[in-house]
């Protein structure tokens, strides 16, 4: 049962990270800022999501 729960949580986490990347890509931030945010989200998902929620581009 632990594998199923872990897999489900992993899938939910992946969906959240993809959603954040899409929001960054659609934001009004400049191209370099978008690239940096996307790279941070890809390479540091937990820290990147927290930082993006606090400091990321709005809109």
UniProtKB/TrEMBL annotation:
InterPro entries: CLS_N. It is a multi-pass membrane protein. The keyword rRNA-binding does not apply. Its main location: membrane. Coiled coil: none annotated. GO terms for cellular component: plasma membrane. Pfam families: PLDc_N (PF13396). It comes from the Bacteria. The chain crosses the membrane at residues 6-24, 36-55. Residues 15-57 form the Cardiolipin synthase N-terminal domain. It is found in: Cell membrane. Keywords: Cell membrane, Membrane, Transmembrane, Transmembrane helix. This is Cardiolipin synthase N-terminal domain-containing protein. It comes from Vreelandella sulfidaeris.
